[in-house]
């Protein structure tokens, strides 16, 4: 079976193994802060207006989403959790009144029932969603809200091409044991069935964003701090540059220039807003 005939999720699973990625780079991630924040804005806008006493921001990153939460619910205790020291350092500067903890969000255990558990572009990195989502819902206060947004782009050209280039010589010899830390999302029906035993209202929808970027190289820069990062971290410096060059070349065939010389990066995102039963 050729790479072209495999699903992107299958290709990504092929590269799971013992090796892991380095720490995340907050400055690099924030290079596209404005378009990245759009989904967080949209997710927060879907959360019903009500007083909040305890909010957790899972995978808070550099604090972009934490700042939006603090603006929406001023005076509320907001705890941001992330594994990356560099991200947490940036978050603490961005949101001085936030409480930030280093930790693995797959093992999240709230100190008290939460009025809002917010996870913007973080849970898609975790496995076992059939276990994870009910576990999170059980940590909500009565009528507390679970608000989640996850990129659903493994089948997009941007991600298929990462795996395709990684399968070629001379990169494959370095990437065979790479852990990309990511699998395909469940279907909306499956997420609904995970949450309906403990939640009284569940909203699920998908939005396809079309981000305007300066060219194919900007798609490389966009994903170099997220989906592309595991590949680049493992490769030796010289081959890393060759990988990036080949990836951009492939991107140029799939993301043609618009009339003004820009390209449109299509990025589907899945949203879930669920309220726990009273």
Structural description of this entry:
The protein is α/β, with parallel strands linked by helices. The chain has one domain (3-276): Vaccinia Virus protein VP39 (Rossmann fold, 3-Layer(aba) Sandwich), CATH 3.40.50.150. It is 38% helix and 23% strand. It has 12 helices and 7 strands. Helix 6 links the parallel strand 4 (114-120) and strand 5. Helix 3 (33-45) packs parallel to helix 4 (64-72), helix 6 (129-137) packs across helix 9 and helix 7 (157-166) packs across helix 12. It is globular and about 55 Å long. Residues 1-21 have low confidence and may be disordered.
Indicate the low-confidence ranges by residue numbers: 1-21
CATH architectural designation: 3-Layer(aba) Sandwich
Mean pLDDT: 88
Label the overall shape: globular
- The total number of structural domains is 1
Q: Main sheet: which strands, in order across?
A: 3-2-1-4-5-7-6
* Sheet with the most strands, sense and barrel status: 7 strands, mixed
Number of helices: 12
Q: N-to-C terminal Cα separation, in Å? A: 51 Å
What would CATH call the homologous superfamily? Vaccinia Virus protein VP39
| Estimated structural class | alpha/beta
- Order of helical and strand elements: HHHEHEHEEHEHHHEHHHE
CATH fold description: Rossmann fold
Our Rg estimate from Cα atoms comes to 19 Å
CATH class: Alpha Beta
Helix content: 25-40%
* Total number of beta strands: 7
Strand content: 15-25%
